[in-house]
Specification:
about 65% helix, 11 helices, two-stranded antiparallel sheet, alpha+beta
């Protein structure tokens, strides 16, 4: 039973750690069956190989065979990740290495704790319970400190250097584990060696997740830049169309008198044209284009959009940045206001003014439900986050580009976004 528990605890901890990192990735078809198959194969192979080649053999043979079997299990675990999840070899190596490091850390901590602080004749059941508690505790800590704070839904690590480093970390932990377990009988020396191997495991985890963070940031910045580029193209197109319509409106006003219509019909047509021609004249063409476009969306959704804006105060910003910034601000506000059921709360207020030495931009809207924040920014509630949820990050990026400061407040289901810029800025930032 002790032999069986030793093998099962090792394998289950390895697979649990790997699964904890990989579970957010897209699953393949028949996922449950694939998981059951992989776990069964890995457990069966481990028990079979351990029984045939290690159990009862001389120590000199055990060391080499144990290293070989451990490394083979690591490779099988990575293969199992590819079989069960939609990822490439690099993503599988990432998950397998993280799982191996987690398993190694927990078992080495358990052995140090038991060998140094507890009696040698400790009951085997108590020993097993201690291992389970330590494993669960360390896994929870690693989850909240490393895994939860990173986006593991797309593990993109297309970097050969990382692959080499992770493999070396695994080999290092395997050898450290082997030396700690077999090559010394002195419990203090064994504890020092195991402590060193724990440090290797922690280093491997930190290295991997830091690389993942950098890759995720690179991926997000690429998406934001692409969206901003598309936004610039949209602005140029929409501005040209609106300019054309404005010219036509101007011409129509001068041709109304020649039309053979009743006085009432002419008055109604003239009012319609003047209403369109005069809407949102803020003194900034880019802002007017955004407001005209979003006002149409608000009318279709029965949302009231009010704007008190001195657009000339935004002359220090490029037109494309103004279009992108206020497009994202109003898109987020419209998305939130559209979910509000009370008619008198389906409103959006946008104000742009100069306050002392600052240019103050404030957007206000009501919202329903609870806002979830990550790194101080509210997150999208859409299921498809591949191209959603970048609006607030784009707003923050443009604000900081011009030396501004962004503040977010929410209270009593009222969302307030405040952007502050120095009024002395009078040149466009390239």
């Amino acid at each position: 039973m002790q032999w069986l528990w030793g093998n099962l605890s090792y394998i289950l901890a390895l697979l649990a750690g790997t699964g904890l990192v990989a579970y957010k990735m897209p699953k393949r078809k028949y996922f449950i069956l694939r998981i059951v198959y992989c776990i069964s194969v890995i457990i069966a192979l481990k028990l079979l190989l351990d029984r045939l080649f290690i159990y009862g053999k001389p120590l000199s043979n055990v060391i080499t065979l144990n290293v070989f079997i451990s490394f083979m299990l690591y490779v099988l675990t990575c293969a199992g990740v590819i079989l069960c999840f939609k990822c490439d070899v690099f993503g599988a190596v990432f998950c397998g290495t993280a799982g191996y490091c987690m398993q190694h850390i927990t078992q080495r901590v358990d052995r140090i704790f038991v060998s140094l602080l507890l009696p040698q004749d400790l009951n085997k059941i108590v020993d097993a319970l201690i291992l389970i508690i330590i494993t669960a505790l360390i896994y929870v800590i690693i989850y909240f400190v490393l895994i939860k704070r990173r986006d593991c839904s797309r593990i993109v690590v297309d970097n050969k250097i990382q692959l080499i480093i992770t493999v070396l970390v695994v080999i290092g932990t395997i050898f450290a584990n082997t030396y700690a377990q077999w090559l010394t009988t002195d419990k203090y020396l064994k504890a020092y060696i195991m402590l060193f191997s724990i440090c290797i495991g922690v280093f491997g985890l930190m290295l991997e997740f830091n690389m993942l963070s950098l890759k995720n940031i690179e991926h997000e910045n690429a998406i934001i830049n692409r969206l901003m580029h598309e936004s610039r193209e949209n602005y140029e197109f929409e501005k040209s169309m609106i300019d054309l319509v404005n010219v036509k409106c101007h011409d129509l006003k001068h041709q109304l008198n020649s039309l053979h219509k009743s006085e009432e019909e002419l008055k109604e047509l003239k009012n319609t044209i003047e209403s369109y021609d005069s809407i949102f004249k803020t003194g900034n063409d880019a802002l007017d284009v955004v407001l005209l476009k979003k006002a149409k969306v608000c009318r279709e959704k029965n949302i009231e959009l009010t704007c008190l804006a001195d657009g000339e105060k935004l002359s220090f910003m490029s037109e494309s940045d103004i279009y992108t910034l206020f497009g994202n601000v109003l898109d987020n506000a419209i998305m939130a206001a559209d979910k509000v059921n009370e008619k008198d709360k389906r409103i959006i207020c946008l104000n742009i003014s100069k306050t002392g030495t600052f240019i103050h931009v404030q957007a206000m809207n009501y919202y329903e439900g609870v806002l979830n924040y990550v790194n101080g920014l509210p997150q999208t509630d859409k299921k498809d986050k591949a191209y959603h949820g970048f609006g607030m990050r784009s707003i923050k990026m443009i604000t900081e580009k011009y030396g501004g400061d962004m503040r977010i407040r929410d209270d009593d289901n009222i969302f307030l976004l405040d952007l502050m810029f120095l009024a002395e800025v009078d040149e466009k930032v390239s």
